[in-house]
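Example 3.2
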Amino acid sequence: MMKSAYMFLLTLAFLCLFKVGLCELCSTVRASRASKFVAERSSLRLSCEVRHCGVSGWTGGWFFQEINSTRFTRLTLFERIELSNYSSTAKSTHLLVDIHNINQSNAGAYKCMVTWPDQSISNGHVTNVNVTAAAVESSGRILSHRVLLCLCATMCFPLVLGLVWCLTRDHPPPPPVPPRSYTSFARKNEVKSKKELVYAEIALNSSRRQNDCPKRAPEPTVYSSVHFS
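Structure, written as tokens:
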């Protein structure tokens, strides 16, 4: 009898612990405890998981605490803040917050807070967000790169001018072509054109020449004659 009562109490205690653990497992908010460093003008997304095990009637959202503040305020839709949620399973829902174009006013602590149907409240772990000036430093590096490029262009400019001057400067003109002489050309043509066979007879008016030739030769055909007196 004592043994049966002992087993009954043990089973009842186990059931109570299991029920409590099941309730705690279902009515919880899971979020990572972390510190994030975000550059200005960038974007940030935070997420937490609400395990409700299919129970309806709960409400929740994201809360924000500024650096110099001691209380959390609920985040609402803003031009740079988007709030959304989606159900990963039938027993859990993820709450999301997206912050765009971050500035120093967004630095602080963020956490999820859920109110259950029995008016109990569950809080997720806090995420500390630090806004850095990394974007400003990157723009400074970009400015230094631009200055370096300008210096390189300034140093290369004289070289380019020298190359252009060498390519475009006045070269010495070629030697002039001697003009052709029309007279010499005409004479050459005249010499080339006048190729004729000429027969000539030379007659000397001398008595001795007449005595040496007693016989009279037949008169030859004369094409041209030259007389010396």
